[in-house]
UniProtKB/TrEMBL annotation:
Pfam families: SOUL. PANTHER family: HEME-BINDING PROTEIN-RELATED, SOUL HEME-BINDING FAMILY PROTEIN. The lineage of its organism: Eukaryota, Viridiplantae, Streptophyta, Embryophyta, Tracheophyta. This is SOUL heme-binding protein. It comes from Ceratopteris richardii (Triangle waterfern). Belongs to the HEBP family. InterPro entries: Reg_factor_effector_dom_sf, SOUL_heme-bd.
Amino acid sequence: MGLAFGKITVETPKYAVVASGADYEIREYGSNIVAEVSYDPSKDRSGGFMILANFIGALGNPQNVKGDRSGEKIAMTAPVLTTDEAVHSEKISMTAPVLTCQEEGLPEKIEMTAPVLSSQEEGHAEKISMTAPVLTEEKPADGGSGGGKSGMMVMQFVLPSKYKCLDDVPRPTDPRVRVKEVSPRKYGVTTFSGIASEKLVEVKVSELEKSLHEAGYKVTGRHVLAQYNPPWTIPFLRKNEVMVPLE
């Protein structure tokens, strides 16, 4: 019932608030590990959520490999992030196929990130918690060198903080899933409730960028949409954020 009523019980990325205004915060985030997928929202309204949920094992057997075993369940975190690949590529260094370093044993299960960690037992799955938010960002038509739009989006799950490096993370078996490390960054952030429709997000981005400009901050890229709750959460109890990268 907590999920329907907006209670966030999963792990969320840590940050420091270094300044604030009437309608925004300036936050500094440390580095973390994300799993991401690109998708066309005009063809798949659920976006990359199902692909990423399958990777961590939120909906069944995890679609990943760790060492010589398969099926580590990764705990889910919040928020889920939807991002533009251009901005994303500036902030996140891409790696080759992720290598992992798991101890001997049978498959571990990785969940999306609320710190619910359980130790692995031989012959059983290790459950890893889910996090929030989910992040989404628009992918530009030119790969990031200009302002054109491609209609493509990038969705990210922030992996649990127990994953300190790329070698710790199970390798996806679905080639559409990419695992990357995100470097420390600064954002201007505004929080709002309700359904994060395209129109509402555009309004929030415009208001945020205006406030940041008036306060003397320099925006360095496209916005990121962070969503903390599942779609069945009562709309007015949902937590959403628009995040704008800053110099």
